[in-house]
Amino acid sequence: RFEHPYLRPEFRSMQRLETVARHMAPGGPTRPPVTSHVLDTGTGRPAQGVSVTLELRDPTGSWNKIGGDLTNSDGRCPQLLPLDHKLRPGVYRCTFDTGAYYGKMADKCFYPEVPIIFEIQATDEHYHIPLLISRFGYSTYRGS
């Protein structure tokens, strides 16, 4: 029976140790307080080149852009926010331009834009917003 090396317990344990080491590293944070990752389930690959915008809702209900990035070859947004960005409690919106992503491949999609609205209360935590997309659907969850 084939078992992918990334699924072995020793690999997962090593990942946990690396995560703890990153959080304890001297000199400040090693990743922004909010990160994202986009995977295209239709192709089974990371979604490269998706424009991602991060906004914070103000007390009047208006959205204010606080960050943005394009997904890299691994489907991640390494520069969504600066490393030293200080989060504030509030409601945030992370919007993914899926229409432009599929348009580059001469494809159409049913959801040309995916807004994910979430609330941050604990400003000292890290928030990861993963998105799984296909031409006719999407899914998300709170990542780690």
| Alpha-beta classification | alpha+beta
Radius of gyration: 17 Å
Indicate the percent of residues in helices: 10-25%
Number of strands: 8
- The separation of the N and C termini measures 30 Å
For the sheet with most strands, the description reads: 4 strands, mixed
Q: Average pLDDT, to the nearest integer?
A: 87
Order of helices and strands: HEEEEEHEEE
Residue ranges: pLDDT <50 for 5 or more in a row? none
Shape: globular
Helix count equals: 2
- The order of strands across the largest sheet is 2-1-7-8
Q: Which strand-content bin applies to the residues?
A: 25-35%
Explain what the structure shows.
The protein has 144 residues and is α+β, with helices and mostly antiparallel strands. It is 16% helix and 35% strand. Strand 7 and strand 8 form a beta hairpin. The protein is globular.
